[in-house]
Amino acid sequence: RITENQVLVGPMGRAELRRAIELPARSAGLRLEDDLVQRVLDDGGDEPGALPLVAHAMAETWRRRRGNTLTVAGYVDAGGVVGAISQSAESLHATFDDTQQTVVERLFLRLVTPGEGAADTRRRLDLSSALDSGDHEVVGAIIERLTDARLLTVNDDSVEIAHEALIQTWPRLRGWIDARRDELRMRQRLERAAAEWRDGDHDRDLLLRGTPLEAAADWSSSHTDLVTPETAGFIEASLDARREHDEESVRSARRTRRVRRAAVAVLGVFAAVAAIASVVALRSSQEAARNEDEANTRFAQALATLAGEEADRSPRLAMAMAVESIERSDSAPIEAMASLARARAVEHATPLVPASGSIAVGDAHRVAISPAGDLAATGGRDGTVAFWSVPDGRALSAPGVGHTRAVEDLVFVPTGDRLVSAGQDGRVLSWDLSDANAIPPPD
Hints:
Distance between the termini: 137 Å
Shape: rod-shaped
Number of helices: 15
Helix content: 55-70%
Strand content: 5-15%
């Protein structure tokens, strides 16, 4: 079998290459013109892998033979070792029509790998993939003609450029490559990614995402001639994964919005309940406060009335009830203070004698005694208020005009340093007694 009888052959030397040229020609009954072999050796004898190029050059020289003689002129006309393959490719390309030439360009570009910092190289392509570059019959016919011209090599399931030198020596192919170098590099990157995805058992984590996917999708849609079926499937799988992700994102966003709306509704109910509860509590608190104030007012009024009734019979009890009435409510202070004054007057009754004799005790309409019992105040019918020393009955001040009508009530505050007077004119005045010997006008 072939696999068991393979022999690796190294590069030929000049002598070996000479025999490879002369012996087949002699066996075929051909004559080599003088200097032809030397010219061939000078052109390609020192290049590694020169044998395929030399073989092609000699075949093209044979096509241009004169009789049974291979001439130097025929060799030069064929383009020599380096140019023969390029000239063959260009000559064959000229025989194709415009549609066929487009197919040839697409086919060769798919058979080239652009170098990155190195020379461009040929690449092997699945024959089925190569046929997908256009109409199968048209592409198949073109591949067959290129193979007959020894520009392509076809195996059972693959096709590739026959001679690497064609990439460097055929100007038209160089132009195609240079014009679309960036596109070829993009194709190469995508094919590598697709192969990695395939070898990774189609792992979703190996698919394209984001900006690389956008770039790949845009590129593949406008460069279908460079996209292999595997690469196209890889890009489509990436797009499908993105669509699934987008749909899931939409569903998730909808779920989030529903949850938020429900939460807002629940919070709204809670807020409404809390507001109602707050209003009810506030109203209840206000009602309770009003009820308490009304109860205190009624009780204070009752105490003031009782204090007035008890002032003459039980002055101490009357004073206690009057003070409690004043502390409980401000709504009946005049009556309570009047009762307090009357009770104190009864409790501390003492004859008062004016110092100058100008004011008689009988002129007093109301009398009050300080808590310490050392100071008395009298309220006259004419609205004046006078202050007296209880121990000796001495007048401490001339009558002070405070009211326009008779004084109805006089009350010392518990500390004894201030007197409150109430008159029939409806006024309530406060007298500062911090210095009994110099009492200022009332506030």
